[in-house]
Predict the structure of RING-type domain-containing protein.
Amino acid sequence: MFGRKPVNKAKLEHKLYLARETPEPVFDLSDCSLHDVPTGIYSLCRVFLKESLLLNNNSLTSLSSGGELKDLQLLKILNLSNNHFNNLPDDIHLLKNLQELYLSNNQLRKLCDSICNLGNLQILDISCNLLKALPDNFGKLEQLKKLDITENKKLKSLPKSFHRLHRLKALKLEGNCFNYPPKDVVLDGIEAIRRFICDDIGVNYEFIVSDHEEYQKSESKTDDKVDSVQAKLWELEQLKEQKVKQFLETERYNELMQRQELELAIASKTDRDKLLAMLAEQQIVLDEELHKIQREKETERFRLIEQLQEEENNTHMMVNNLLALDSQPLAQLIEQEQKETEKLLTIVNEYDESLRKDDILKAMQDILEQETARFKQVDEDRMVASKSILEQETELDGKLTDILRNQDEYKAKLVNDLKIDTDLQKAAVATLLERGDARSWGLLQQIKLVESQLARLTTIEIDRKKLQMNQHLNDLCDQRIGLSCLLMSLIDQQKERQSQLISTLQDMEENSSDINDFWLKQLPEGLSQAQKNIDPSLAQALLVNGVIHCLPFLAKLTQSQYNLTEVTDSNLSDAGLNSGNDRRRILDAFHMYGKEKQLNKQSNIPSAPPLLDEASAPPPEEINTFTTVECVICLDIECQVIFVPCGHLCCCHHCGSKISICPMCRVDVEKVITLHANI
């Protein structure tokens, strides 16, 4: 590989030029140090009607790179001698008009069988190769006249089809090396070889004299052709000198063009360097601006993280206070409930004695008078109809029967409606009494407070995930689970209190003297005792000070019209609070609540009159650390349900009813709790 001779490109281009320009049928690519046949050579032979292709004295090993061999159908002479061929392609038979094939001084070890299909082949030179045998159907080359197989030392025999070569007149071989036919037969000549093979295979030998005479005539014609070829070669040499001059002029022109291209390349390189320098400066400026924007974003992110951390600390403190509540009812709360129950029973009994039913009785008397008048009118109509139309008496009796039946059904419907109204009145009175009950009211406020803290914890977790702050998520999970357990306990206490109130009302109904209108009479009293929801800011202040469990004792104070900051220790003692520590904390919570309301009022008062003209720049956007929690599934409706046991508040009622796994923590949902109010 290291001693591989380079291709003589100048000589190759010159010969390609001559092949295109000269009208001679010879395509000469010999002695160009070719390793592969140039691409497109075969198609050029077909286009320019070349009959001779000379590829001798090169380093070829294959014919595949030149194109398709079927393009060489017009070829008559192919010279491949002095190359490095190991074998010939199988499609060599496509050269149907080939008459002369020169393969000497190669490395052929075997001839392909398709070479025997060259029916017009007359001269075959395969000397100086490594052949061991000739193809068995070698006798199909019936037009073969000259055969040279010398210097093939491993070739020891001739094929038995050799006797069919009737036109063979020149055979070159080394007789001393042959085993078949014997060397004495080989030395006697072609006819002796043919006769020996015919006798060996049992075929009659035929000697064709006309072939020998034809051979002599062809020899004389060949000599004439040689003279004409030499004359043409002289003309070609002169033409060659002219082409060489033209080639040199072309080379000088190409050199001039190369110089111009080099100058253009240098100029373009200079411009490119300037452009790259300018782009580098612009890139530096852009990088500085990008670093500045990144620093601003980092500063903004740290500020958001600090706000989130502060809010998380406040929530953590309030959650701990909620979890520290005692789930068992206090003795003071039970005593206060008993007093409230006795007072309620006394008020109901007094009100029951003072009620009158004059209006109800008068209304019923009016209804009876109207019914009596209606019956009289019906009787009069019946008498008139019976006197005027006797033949329709039977039909009128049937109609009167239908009217009476409809009246009975109407009365039954009125009775059912009255019963239904009684149940509705009973349910309304129970609801109003629950709203007026101090303990139920306190439980409801605690439930709403726990729900608000669960909403805040869920919002904090979502914000931390958006900011990729995954620390302390386990602490948030523990707090949510604790709050969800507390929420379940408060809901159970609320249901138990509802059942106690309903049982009390049933006892009152049994002891009442007027059972029919008992629930109707209780509605005004229930409306007068219904309490409003506590301010969320006040509930948060009580939670921060650790006295949220005292809400039932503060029901009357929070519903009153006077300022809570003016409440004294004696007022709290009269409300049933015996612990001095609890009273002190409650007063601190009231003062904190009053200060917060005062700050809110001051923030709503403008410090200067509004400007008449529009501002020259838009106002800065407010940064909201916590936003309204929306359903993480539909992203449309606010969250309405809490999942137990994880405590996440992240879905609306519609989406939460269709799933069994929490969409945030992937924990199985054991129970779904609907919020009592929007948070």
